[in-house]
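Case study.
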Amino acid sequence: MGGSKIDVKTQVTSGGLSTKKVVMYVLFALAVFGLPIFFQSVQNYFFVRIFALMGIYVMLALGLNIVVGYAGLLDLGYVAFYAMGGYVGMLLGFSFTEGLQGAAYWTMLPAAALAGAGTGICLGFPVLRLRGDYLAIVTLGFGEIVRIALVNNFLGVTNGAKGLPGPDQLVPTPAGQTWITENVRFGDFRFSSDLWWYFVIVLLCALTIFVVRRLDDSRLGRAWVAMREDEVAAASVGVNIVTTKLWAFSLGALWGGIAGVTYAYWVGFISPESFNFMESVLIVCMVVLGGMGSIPGAILGAVIITGLPEFIRWGAQSPFLSNWLTTEQANLAGQYRYLVFGLTMVIMMIFRPQGILPSVRRAMELHPEDPKTLDEANQQLWEAEHNTDTDNDLV
Amino acid sequence: MSIQLVLQQFVNGVTLGGMYALIALGYTLVYGIMLMINFAHSEMFMGGAFVGLFAFKFFAQYEFFTSSGFGLVLLFALTFLVAGVVIGILGVLIERIAYRPLRHAPRLAPLISAIGVSIFLQQAVLLWITARAVPFPNFVPRGGLDLGGVTISNIQLMIVITCIVLLLVLDTFVAKTRIGKAMRATSQDREAASLMGIDINRVIGVAFFIGPALGAVAGIFSGIYYGSIKFDMGFLPGIKSFTAAVIGGIGNLRGAMLGGFLLGIIESLAAGFISSGYKDVIAFAALILVLVFRPGGLLGESVVEKV
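After joint prediction, the assembly is written out as follows.
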């Protein structure tokens, strides 16, 4: 066989698990399951909550990654779906509190997912013909419309700027939580409700990752990529642009809805202020920082952006970092985070538009003039092929 | 609902529309030449208000400016001039740093970069100047014309007249001058224009100077009109002015003016007679409707998709 270089665009996934990868996965799993239990046992409850919050943002970043990363539709109003999930989940839950009791959260989970996806389709229809920057502004407007409607006590049920739950409304504890928190104890270690929520969120994240991963390889996933790279060309080879776009919006929004209802039931309070434009930008920033179209990238982006400022703030009070960092400096780090995120977006776009953990395909699209990425990827493929060739020769 | 009330809302709407038109011109100038939405433009509006405030406070220390009527007029002009020039230079700098390296990148890249710049500038003002709303001196004499129950205050009159004058000057500038001609050529076809010997960087620089400078003027007007300025004051007017530019047909200067006044009037009437809580929704709904039914805008050409 010759050593002809293969076009990487058609050969993106190379299977097989190297030892390095296995070690990485094991460490990752240990961190995901071990760290919160560790923090709980040293009674650092604050960090358990931060971990759960990271999980919420991982879901949001993965959901937005479908729209921005896969389908290439910049959505600046993603927070609308997050809000929709939270409000629909809570309001429906309140209306049936008597009947549902502990099952409220569990039944509202699919309901909120549907509400999110439905809202996604509602947004998708009018913007079908728009591209790029127009789309970004319209989605931004859509996000603001939803927020303003919530502030103005839409249909008389959203309780305006004061948020939910309103007076006489009670957020029911999900079934399964009370038993665990009361019965699982080892000495000082108590399985708190935050820890319980953390594991629920981890499960939901795992589900998200699984579904998104499968979507990436599916017929629909390839249609998204084709549409992203060239809409006209994609349409001419038989991709139905209308349904492909609507699927992108609804499947992306679905995770926003799930994250929204989970956040609402976990924290027990939501108000329109939690769903402002900055929140949308934050999620976009996570996807951009990690790498558009990349699942590990979106996860990393969410963890860094949610976790880093909190970690620095905490570090100043802890014995680990207090030698280097005063409390004032740490608080400053918290205040400066949006400034740093803004700067990060500019710097990333100029120097590394493909993100920290790029998807190979997206990297090439964003950096077409950079032959280095292409060469490296081709080199790897060539070496892989070459190695098998020599093996064959030896046999 | 009396006819006076309708007319009064109409007057308020025209004032608001004048400010929108000034900001919208910045969007449309940049879009026409670069084919990008300068998301940071709303921060030019906000920055203009802050620079204007500092300039005003600086010059007001000197008795020369406050003692005579002529001095006051000079103070007034200097405030606008300083803010316009400073923000214009800021606009050129932003283009150099954040947009120029991305000129040949996919269209999502400069947009994300612009959002980053916008957040950075907002946070810079919040952290390094103030997070609170700052009172803005009202240096326009109070009072105004009273036309049978409809009041047109001096500041309203000033905003509308200044806007119209600036719009006319800009229109003539683009239509008659050499650099204006170069701008029109560049917006038609950048490659061809550069082959004809037009310095594209200079044209883009001029667009990024004029747009932000006009935005700064609008910012000062907004400060005087509403009496206070804040780090996040640019967001809503920015989005609405973009809407105005789209309504008029983006890339079209006269369209931006028309769109600005139209949006201001619609918003003002809707706030008065439908619901003030939902007045921001009206602008966004107008944007979506225009983009869906007439994506080219009122005065724009129909957009032909380039393959």
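Observations recorded in class. Residues 241-267 of chain A form the longest helix (27 residues). The mean pLDDT of chain A is 79. We will return to this complex in the next lecture.
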